[in-house]
Input
Amino acid sequence: MSSNKLTKDTILKTWMGFTSGGYLGRDDGYPERKFHAFDSLEDAVIGEARKDQQFYRLVPVPREEVFHARAQLEREERSRHKRHLATEIKLLQKEHDEL
Output
Protein backbone atom coordinates (compact mmCIF):
# COMPACT_ATOMS: atom_id res chain seq x y z
CA MET A 1 0.00 0.00 0.00
CA SER A 2 1.39 3.39 -0.90
CA SER A 3 0.13 5.33 2.13
CA ASN A 4 -0.77 4.68 5.75
CA LYS A 5 -4.37 5.87 5.31
CA LEU A 6 -7.24 3.56 4.46
CA THR A 7 -8.95 4.48 1.23
CA LYS A 8 -12.52 3.70 0.28
CA ASP A 9 -11.33 0.60 -1.57
CA THR A 10 -8.56 -0.67 0.69
CA ILE A 11 -8.44 -4.45 0.31
CA LEU A 12 -6.77 -6.95 2.65
CA LYS A 13 -5.57 -10.14 0.97
CA THR A 14 -4.77 -13.18 3.14
CA TRP A 15 -3.39 -16.60 2.30
CA MET A 16 -1.51 -19.46 3.94
CA GLY A 17 2.22 -19.40 3.51
CA PHE A 18 5.32 -20.64 5.29
CA THR A 19 7.86 -18.91 7.48
CA SER A 20 11.11 -17.97 5.86
CA GLY A 21 14.24 -17.43 7.89
CA GLY A 22 14.75 -18.81 11.36
CA TYR A 23 13.37 -16.91 14.34
CA LEU A 24 14.60 -17.65 17.87
CA GLY A 25 16.03 -20.98 16.79
CA ARG A 26 12.91 -22.05 14.92
CA ASP A 27 13.33 -23.96 11.67
CA ASP A 28 12.02 -22.60 8.40
CA GLY A 29 8.83 -23.88 6.87
CA TYR A 30 6.16 -23.52 9.56
CA PRO A 31 2.73 -22.61 8.14
CA GLU A 32 1.48 -19.10 8.87
CA ARG A 33 -1.24 -16.76 7.65
CA LYS A 34 0.15 -14.02 5.40
CA PHE A 35 -1.44 -10.58 4.92
CA HIS A 36 -1.05 -7.73 2.46
CA ALA A 37 -3.09 -4.52 2.05
CA PHE A 38 -3.81 -3.05 -1.39
CA ASP A 39 -5.24 0.28 -2.53
CA SER A 40 -7.72 -1.41 -4.89
CA LEU A 41 -9.23 -4.78 -5.71
CA GLU A 42 -7.53 -4.64 -9.10
CA ASP A 43 -4.12 -4.43 -7.40
CA ALA A 44 -5.04 -7.25 -4.99
CA VAL A 45 -5.88 -9.79 -7.69
CA ILE A 46 -2.62 -9.31 -9.59
CA GLY A 47 -0.26 -12.22 -9.16
CA GLU A 48 -0.63 -15.89 -8.35
CA ALA A 49 -4.20 -17.14 -7.84
CA ARG A 50 -4.44 -19.47 -4.86
CA LYS A 51 -7.42 -21.46 -3.60
CA ASP A 52 -6.83 -20.37 -0.01
CA GLN A 53 -6.79 -16.63 -0.77
CA GLN A 54 -9.37 -14.49 1.00
CA PHE A 55 -10.11 -10.82 0.38
CA TYR A 56 -11.59 -8.32 2.83
CA ARG A 57 -12.65 -4.73 2.31
CA LEU A 58 -11.24 -2.62 5.14
CA VAL A 59 -13.50 0.06 6.51
CA PRO A 60 -12.11 3.04 8.44
CA VAL A 61 -13.50 3.34 11.97
CA PRO A 62 -14.01 6.85 13.35
CA ARG A 63 -11.61 7.61 16.22
CA GLU A 64 -14.54 8.59 18.45
CA GLU A 65 -15.94 5.05 18.20
CA VAL A 66 -12.57 3.59 19.22
CA PHE A 67 -12.24 5.97 22.18
CA HIS A 68 -15.82 5.26 23.25
CA ALA A 69 -15.27 1.49 23.08
CA ARG A 70 -12.05 1.79 25.10
CA ALA A 71 -13.75 3.94 27.77
CA GLN A 72 -16.63 1.46 27.99
CA LEU A 73 -14.21 -1.45 28.41
CA GLU A 74 -12.32 0.41 31.16
CA ARG A 75 -15.61 1.14 33.00
CA GLU A 76 -16.60 -2.53 32.79
CA GLU A 77 -13.20 -3.66 34.07
CA ARG A 78 -13.36 -1.22 37.02
CA SER A 79 -16.87 -2.42 37.84
CA ARG A 80 -15.78 -6.07 37.68
CA HIS A 81 -12.80 -5.29 39.92
CA LYS A 82 -15.03 -3.49 42.47
CA ARG A 83 -17.42 -6.45 42.58
CA HIS A 84 -14.49 -8.81 43.09
CA LEU A 85 -13.12 -6.67 45.93
CA ALA A 86 -16.55 -6.47 47.57
CA THR A 87 -16.83 -10.26 47.48
CA GLU A 88 -13.34 -10.66 48.96
CA ILE A 89 -14.16 -8.20 51.75
CA LYS A 90 -17.36 -10.09 52.61
CA LEU A 91 -15.44 -13.38 52.77
CA LEU A 92 -12.75 -11.87 54.99
CA GLN A 93 -15.38 -10.31 57.28
CA LYS A 94 -17.13 -13.67 57.56
CA GLU A 95 -13.84 -15.38 58.46
CA HIS A 96 -13.10 -12.65 61.00
CA ASP A 97 -16.54 -12.99 62.60
CA GLU A 98 -16.08 -16.76 62.92
CA LEU A 99 -12.88 -16.33 64.92
The longest strand covers residues 11-18. Residues 63-98 form the longest helix (36 residues). Residues 61-99 form one domain. The chain has a mean pLDDT of 84.
